[in-house]
Amino acid sequence: MKYVFLTACRNEELTLGEFIAEFAAMIASAGIAGRTVLYVVDDLSTDGTREVLDRHARKAEGFSLRTLLAPTNLGNQGAMFYGLGRIEVEPQDALVTFDSDGEDDVSQIPSILQLGASNPGKMVLIERGRRSESIRFKFLFGGYKMLFRLLTRQQVVPNNFMLIPGKCVPIIRRSPLAAVHLAYGVLKLNTPRVTVTRDRRPRYAGRSSQNVFMLVSHGLVGLMVFYEIVIAKLFMLLFGFGAFAMSITGLAVALPSWNVAAQRTLIWIAIAASIGAIGFSALLLAAALIVVFKLGIFTLSLTYAEPAIRPTPRPESESSAAGDAPAGTSDKRAS
Questions:
Q1: Are residue 26 and residue 46 in the same domain, yes or no?
Q2: Radius of gyration of the chain measured on its C-alpha atoms
Q3: Model-wide pTM > 0.85
Q4: Which stretches within 162-259 are classed as H helix?
Q5: Residues 6+ apart with CB under 8 A from 112
Q6: Which residues contact 286 (CB under 8 A, 6 or more apart)?
Q7: Which H or E run contains 89?
Q8: Between residues 316 and 10, the one the model is more confident about
Q9: Which residues neighbour 75 within 8 Å (Cβ) at sequence distance 6 or greater?
Q10: Do 293 and 313 fall within a single domain?
Q11: Can you give the pLDDT at residue 327?
């Protein structure tokens, strides 16, 4: 049995050293050195990320660091799914996926491995608890979690930080919606699982480069993973909004003509309800279109760019010297 870790990064030249050092300390304290492989998907970085990864791969001790080069910028979810299809993992292995920006607490991984060992064959989904974000972000995220649970009937809101038994990896690889949102794609498969909450830490580099609009868009796109339930509930909500608006309008018309103020108030309430329903529908329709485009782009990128990727050949002397614990390797573009 070995422990496989998968993460993705883009333009993290300044923070990768801290991340890899913390990861190395974690596997040493967890007692899994020599049985650990860390895969890092480079999501087409434009800085020195690749050079930093190659440098650390050559001197990694206790684990093998391997870099996978995405054929184009796939986004965090697409890059994770791309890596999932290319890692070497056996049915008896344990796979841990997580973000490399520091928010997923690496020091919590040993406890996650223990939880997975005590629940063999089950995934461990981790819901994020307290987070060091602005009040506005916390308010919006709290509202999103309520909306997610209402529309999907799912109680847990997972993220990239999770443990996947090796035998479940082929199932996830066959789920194309996991390329849109890995954790939600896993959740939709409804495989045996346990859930746990872990707090988020501040990022290595401080504040995220993503704005609120990008985060809201990501959340709405994630909802579309559960499109069967979401669309059905959307129609029910639209019918409810429409019936409410019509009832309020009818009540306004039924009022005596001299009660103009009350009529205007009711009509404005009806208009507001109609606008809210239309706006909500437009957002989810846009999210559905984004899902279609993302899947199309992901498929095209693999179809046309995959031939340009090949493994780095390793000298025979290096391979024989490494034995069962090879040094980190990486994918490179064919010349």
A1: yes
A2: 24
A3: no
A4: 169-173, 182-189, 212-223, 227-254
A5: 96, 124, 126, 163, 196, 198
A6: 220
A7: none
A8: 10
A9: 43, 294
A10: no
A11: 42
